[in-house]
Amino acid sequence: MDDRAGTPPTLFDWEFASDPYPAYGWLREHAPVYRTTVPSGVEAWLVTRYAEAREALADGRLSKNPVHHAESPGARGKTGIPGERSADLMTHLLNIDPPDHTRLRRLVSKAFTPRRVAEFEPRVRELADRFVDGMLRDGTGQADLIHEFAFPLPIYAICDLLGVPAEDQDDFRDWAGMMMRHVKPGQGGGPRGGVARAVKRIRTYLVELIERKRATLGEESAADDLISGLIRASDHGEHLTGNEAAAMCFVLLFAGFETTVNLIGNGMHTLFRHPAQRAALQQALARGDHALLDPAVEELLRYDGPVEMATWRYATRPLTIGGRPIAAGDPVLVVLAAADRDPARFDAPGTVDLARRDNPHLGYGHGIHYCLGAPLARLEARTAFATLLTRLPDLRLAADPAELRWRGGLIMRGLRTLPVAFTPGTAPAAQGK
Fold this sequence. Notes:
The protein has 16 helices and 12 strands. It is an alpha+beta fold. It has one domain: CATH 1.10.630.10.
C-alpha cells in the first residue's frame, strides 16, 4: 500500500454495501492488491485493477478447490457457497480445477447448448409478460420490482430449463428465497440457519428428481430438459455421477437465478438514475429497434453488475499479483465491480453509456471459469428490460434512492427491494394478446 495514501476506507459496512465504488476507487489507486478480513472472518486478498483482475481470473496457480485454503480453525468452512459443504454439494464447476473441471464442463456443455438457450426465448418472454400482467392486475399502479418480477422470472425459467415439474416450482421459489434471504415484504429476515436448510432441501429434492428422470430415460416420453441432458451426457464413456449431477444442478440453480435477479434489479435501478440513457433505449424499443438492447445489457453488467466479486480462489504456491507477494494457501478475491470501473481500461468508467462499444467487462468472469450460463442470463435480461420498458412505459422509482437497501454479501450485489410506480391504464398488451 502507498504509505502516502492515508487511511484505507472502511469495507463491508452498510454504507459500503450501499455504494462500494468510492472505496474500490481508493483501493485501485493506492492498494490495488489489498489484504483484509472479510465479514466471515477469513483473511483474503482483494484484486481491484482490471489488468491484474483479468490475469488472476485466468491464472492456473489460483485454484478453485478449497482444499488449497490454508484456513485458520476459526474460519474453517467459511468460503464458498453457503450451505454447500454440509449438504455434500461441493463437486461442481465453481470448486474444481482441471482435469476434473475440463471433464465436467465438457459434459455439462453438451446439455447447455446455444440452441437450447435460443429455443428457450419464447418461454422467457411468456414468463416476463405473466409477471407484468400480475403487476397490472393488482390495480394499485405500485409494485416491488424485485419481489414481483426480477426474483420470480429467473426462478421459474431455471426450473423449466432444469425440468422441475410445474407442481414443484413454487417450492423451489421458496427454497431459493431462503438461500438469498429473500422473503416477502412484511415477513422479516427469515429464520436463522434458513440458508443451510434450504440448500439441504434442494439437494434432497434434486437427488430424487434425478433418479426419477434416470428411470424414464429409455421411454418415448422421456423429457428433453437440462437434468435429463446431464444424465445422458457422456464423453468417452464417462458419465456424471449422481452426486456430480446433483451438485451441477445446484450450482446452475444458484448461479442461474441470483445473478439474473441482481442484473435485472441493478439494471433497472441504473436506468431510473440515468433518465436520458433510459429514454434513448425506450424510444428505440418503441420503434421496434432492438439494436441498442445488447450493448445496453453489457453496459449495465459493467456499470453495476450482479456479481461484485468472483468466487473464491486459493494460491497453490507463492506468487506475486500487482507487486504484492501472495503466500501458498492464501484466498484471493477478484473484485469484478472494481475492475469494471477501472479508468485505465474504460473511458469515463463512472458514466453510463448504453451504446458503449469498447466494453470487455469481466461481469461473467474470464478464462476457463467464464460463466457457462451467461447466454441464458443475457437472454433473460434482454427480455426483462424490453418487456418492462415497452409494457410499462412510465415505470418509475417510487422511493428515495438513498433509502434503498442492498443485501449484505460478499460475492453478489443486489437490492432487497425496488419500489416502483406506473399507470396501469397506459400499459400496452403483451405481444400476441
